[in-house]
Design goal:
Elements lengths: L4 H7 L10 E6 L9 H7 E3 L6 E9 L2 E10 L3 E6 L5 H13 L19 E7 L8 E15 L14 E7 L2 E8 L5 E2 L18 H8 L1
Antiparallel strand pairs: 1-6, 2-5, 3-4, 5-8, 6-7, 7-8, 7-9, 9-10
Length: about 210
Amino acid sequence: MSFNVSTFRNSMAYDGARPNLFEVVLTGVPAIGQLSLEDFTFKCKSAQIPGSTLGVVTVPYFGREVKFVGNRTFADWTVTIINDEDFKVRKFFERWMNVINSHETNTRGTGFNQPNSYVGQAVVRQYTKTGQSPTSLQYKFVDIFPTDLSAIDLDWGSNDTIEELTVNFTYQYWTSSVTPSSGQAVQVQNAQPDAADINNGATPGAAAALASLR
């Protein structure tokens, strides 16, 4: 293939996806404190579009290793959060983890014995540069709960900076869908089928993500 700048530019029909055009929405979390959509969404500085892993089963046969497909696994998901002076988001995750297992008594909180009582849902949405067209892509994390809340480093020499913290989540699985400019979400063919992900009449923004999870 000959070198041709114009051909390469034409292949990038939409000028490339940008990693800073995203938002994360956390919903359906345990009722352990007041945390609005905006509290988490505005302060969630970084996240990831999840990867996908299939295991491999290796069977020896006449000196050769024959490979068969194994089980799917889902790696943990980590977000970085900007810490405000009210520590509102940080304290929420402290409470969430505490009802799962308390610091002092090593017990589960009252009313959080059932699996559905301590999990939530999350959506990470990738936006286009125009906000809607041609598509927006979103990933839904099903039945998440925090497993690790990072320390926050303090330092007299840290000037002109804002504290940050990370939260590590585990979850059951993720699904993906695209939202064409018409606003009708369509399940991606290679994603886990989940009728609940079909978001009729969705529009970009935290409010739409909340509506799709209700």
